[in-house]
Specification:
heterodimer, A: alpha+beta, Cytochrome p450, five-stranded mixed beta sheet, 16 helices, 10 strands, B: alpha/beta, FAD/NAD(P)-binding domain, six-stranded mixed beta sheet, six-stranded antiparallel beta sheet, 19% helix
């Protein structure tokens, strides 16, 4: 089939279970111009070059007229994931202040016990059951509890912000040829509501802080100036949404992949020291985020093709992760793979902010599940997938567990 | 690999970063023979970058910077013993204790030492330090912890500037004396050197440029009390740190017949040493700070680098080539990279900034103290330096490797229109006029054909 329909085929829900042959077709083509004029890039080295190119923007306001979508002001305030330096750098470093080095080097490590406790509780609740949905019973509630704990959001409010989160994720999906007006409007509304909710929570802690990040944002701002109310809303929404919509895929894809590779599952059970490497391999083999969009600020050359200013470029991370020019035997799942510099967390200045947390969560979650998986079987293969082509992962993953002896 | 290459005894002279990484790589690649590592310091290999940073700040003790081993190199460690000579014909290394070590292949990784103050009796004053070893750092950290009234740092290269930064962070008054026009000018050229000077002054450093220290003074008890400067002024201080660059440890090779001199031991791109006739040897290899090697990106000029990353990369290439013959041998082509942290900023460099005639601020700005400076030579990009923007470095490394046109195309999201299009002279001084040694030295000639001598006056 013609490569100019690749984006339509990749985003076609029917191809969600196995987009990898399409990615191979894309790599064959190099850079593929789509029928709507946008571009797809799937080679590892081309993606890395674009990630590091300061002429590629993450800010959709730089889209040329034909691709611009809604008027820009409806997306205010913008989270740092959709901004360029120097604004991106300023906001990201303020967001990092209570989260990681240099100001909070111990934050993630201090979460380990809490993550283990939440994991153990979830596993405890599975005892005695023979049929489990890995997503609803484990992979979704775990990161939600962790991000709530980290930010300082009451866990019982989850049903409310889950709806907002769904609307936000839906509005940032990539769907060529579709008028995104309705979903963008719904997404903006959800973003505003979630933002108000989170800022209110933060304000309640002004003067009597807990050890959560919302408390830190209002009580311990950077001496040179903290986040404004609007910036705090945008940042907190980003962290809450990203914190529970991506790790769920990593854990679920992990369980699915291990059940499809029983030899590797058995090996990991015997050698749990291999788990950190196995999580990296999962991030390569089945990454939680498949597509990212960038906008060239000038004409940019990629692999012999000139991409014009303002025309969206979709970087297919999951394709770069399977590029045989970078990874030997790329379609093989190998938890002991060395030199595994995958694109699971992106690369460059926008590299995943939450990566250290996601790594710890996935390592603890999969480590705790391993003993229960050796006798488990998949009920459906492939399982039903989430709608999103960007955040690709199963919507449900039903498995049968052997009855307890 | 051929059986004889896997077995014959290998001797590595130098037990620091390059020596350790080479030893590990030899084993990783299947070398099964006897392996001896000789080091004149009594310690197992340790890391030096923290010595001028965390150790001086009192955050880490000097003896806690041991280098982790990737694997046990199963070597005979001869520590605390200096190599005194090399017999190329008899294939043996002579040691200070009278012993001689026969080798089938030899790796020279003896590195550098701190350039001492030229007047030995002044250098011997209590309170005068250099900073290279674990002991140096431990003693200096102890003096800083005792709260001296003022520290004098001679030389404003990277080491001198980091020492001054640590002093200010600890609230200690510090004077920096530099013969050149500004700190770091020998490595980064004029534009960023002005930024460095501004940083130092903003942090309360008493920075004196364009002066030399003419004498270190002591009291009757042999304690350092201050120094005279060439402008007629006098600095009262309790501690003096000589940070005038490094001297390559090549004296032990003086009679060996190898091409060893003040710039180091010359070798080819495969790390094989040259003899004094320019004939390449096949059993003597060189890696790390003591080496001097040709680089195709810089017109095959011989480079002398004092970089952590180069020591690792070159040691690995040398080790691989020591147990390979013919086409499987690899060239050492890594683009030079180094970093520094001082006065609250992170400075990182790729390429050779001194190999340039122009510089442009491609991203950020001097006033923001977040920037990428890109260096060019005759219309191609040869280096880039980031200040607090290290994540962008990889992009510019690609441009250097591709000999991309200079100046880089404008249009970066955080580039300032006009600024990104105006290249300035890179203003790289003759290293003879500096108190500090450049940590990257082109040992052939600068692009404008001046001959360079890396031995600073003073």
């Amino acid at each position: 089939m013609a490569v100019d329909t690749l984006l339509e085929r990749i985003t076609d829900y029917a191809n969600r279970p196995d987009p990898y042959p399409l990615y191979a077709e894309l790599r064959e083509a190099g850079v593929a111009r789509q029928t709507d004029g946008s571009y797809l890039v799937g080679g590892y080295y081309d993606i890395v070059a674009l990630f590091h190119n300061p002429r590629l923007s993450s800010d959709r306001r730089n889209r040329a007229g034909a691709y611009s979508g809604l008027p820009a002001d409806e997306e205010e305030p913008r989270p740092f994931i959709r901004l360029d330096d120097p604004e991106h750098r300023r906001l990201r470093s303020l967001a990092t202040r209570p989260f990681g080095p240099p100001h909070s080097p111990g934050r993630i490590d201090a979460m380990r016990d809490e993550i283990t406790r939440i994991t153990d509780e979830l596993i405890e609740s599975l005892q005695g059951r023979t049929r489990v949905d890995v997503v609803d019973d484990f992979a979704y509630p775990l990161p939600v509890s962790v991000i709530c704990r980290l930010l300082g959001v009451p866990r019982e409010d989850e049903p409310t912000f889950r709806e907002w989160s769904n609307a936000i994720i839906d509005s940032s999906d990539i769907r060529p040829g579709e008028n995104l007006g309705t979903s963008q409007r719904a997404g903006n509304q959800a973003r505003a509501q979630m933002g108000r909710y989170l800022v209110d929570l933060a304000e309640q802690r002004r003067g009597h802080p807990g050890d959560d990040m919302l408390s830190a944002f209002v009580n311990d701002p950077d001496p040179t100036g903290g986040l404004t109310r609007e910036e705090l809303a945008a940042t907190a929404v980003l962290l809450l949404v990203a914190g529970h919509e991506t790790t769920v895929n990593l854990i679920t894809n992990g369980v699915l992949t291990l059940l499809r590779h029983p030899d590797q599952l058995e090996r990991l059970r015997r050698e749990p020291d291999l788990l950190p490497g196995a999580v990296e391999e999962l991030l390569r083999y089945e990454p939680p985020v498949h597509l990212l969009e960038r906008i060239p600020l000038t004409h940019v050359d990629v692999a012999g093709t000139t991409i014009p200013k303002g025309v969206p470029v979709v970087l297919v991370l999951a394709s770069g992760n399977r590029d045989p020019k970078r990874f030997r035997d790329p379609d093989r799942f190998d938890p002991t793979r060395r030199d595994n510099q995958h694109l699971g967390f992106g690369s460059g200045v926008h590299i995943c902010y939450g990566a250290p947390l996601a790594r710890v969560e996935a390592q603890i979650a999969l480590g705790a599940l391993l003993p229960h998986l050796t006798t488990a079987t998949l009920v459906e293969d492939p399982p039903p997938y989430r709608n999103s082509a960007v955040l690709r992962g199963p919507r449900h993953l039903p498995i049968e567990l052997a009855p307890s002896p | 690999m051929p059986g004889d290459l896997r077995e014959g005894p290998i001797v590595i002279v130098g037990a620091s970063l390059a020596g350790l990484r080479a030893a590990e790589k030899l084993r990783e690649e299947g070398f099964t023979g006897s392996l001896t590592v000789v080091g004149d310091e009594p310690h197992p290999p340790y890391d030096r970058p923290p010595l001028s940073k965390q150790v001086l700040l009192g955050m880490s003790a000097a003896d806690t910077t041991g280098l982790p081993m990737r694997r046990d190199p199963d070597a005979d460690w001869r520590l605390g013993v200096r190599a005194t000579g090399l017999d190329l014909v008899g294939r043996q290394v002579l040691l200070a204790d009278g012993e001689s070590l026969p080798y089938d292949r030899l790796l020279i990784a003896t590195g550098t030492r701190a350039r001492p103050w030229p007047q030995p009796e002044q250098a011997a004053l209590d309170g005068v330090f250099t900073l290279r070893t674990r002991e140096d750092a431990g003693c200096l950290a102890e003096r800083l912890a005792a709260g001296p009234r003022r520290v004098l740092v001679i030389g404003a290269g990277f080491t001198g500037s980091e020492i001054a930064s640590a002093c200010r962070e600890r609230g200690i008054e510090v004077t920096v004396a530099e013969r050149g026009t500004a700190p770091l000018v020998g490595a980064l050229g004029g534009t960023l050197a002005r930024l460095a000077a501004g940083l130092q002054r903003a942090h309360g450093v008493d920075l004196r440029c364009g002066v030399t220290v003419t004498a270190l003074c002591g009291n009757d008890g042999g304690r350092f009390t201050g120094a005279d400067l060439s402008d007629g002024s006098h600095i009262d201080a309790d501690v003096c740190v000589i940070a005038m660059g490094a001297v390559r440890n090549v004296e032990w090779l003086a009679d060996s017949g190898l091409a060893a001199g003040p710039h180091g031991v010359a070798c080819d791109a495969g790390c094989r040493a040259f003899d004094m006739y320019g004939i390449v040897t096949d059993d003597v290899f060189v890696a790390g700070d003591v080496s001097r090697f040709p680089h195709p990106l810089f017109d095959y000029q011989m480079l002398s680098l004092e970089h952590w990353g180069n020591a690792v990369a070159q040691a690995e290439v040398a080790a691989h080539n020591m147990i390979s013959s013919g086409p499987p041998r690899r060239p050492h082509l890594a683009v030079p990279v180094f970093w520094s942290s001082q006065f609250g900023v992170n400075i990182k460099s790729v390429g050779v900034p001194t190999y340039s005639d122009q510089v442009v601020i491609a991203q950020g700005s001097l006033s923001e103290r977040h920037l990428v400076a890109v260096y060019g030579y005759r219309g191609r990009i040869t280096a880039a330096v980031t200040v607090n923007m290290a994540k962008w470095l990889e992009y510019y490394q690609g441009l250097i490797e591709a000999a991309a046109p200079f100046p880089p195309a404008p249009g970066a999201a955080d580039g300032h229109p006009l600024v990104t299009e105006f290249a300035l002279p890179s203003d790289v001084p003759d290293p003879r006029g500096l108190s500090h040694g450049p940590t990257v030295a082109l040992t052939g000639h600068l692009p404008d054909r001046r001959l360079t001598v890396v031995r600073p006056a003073g």
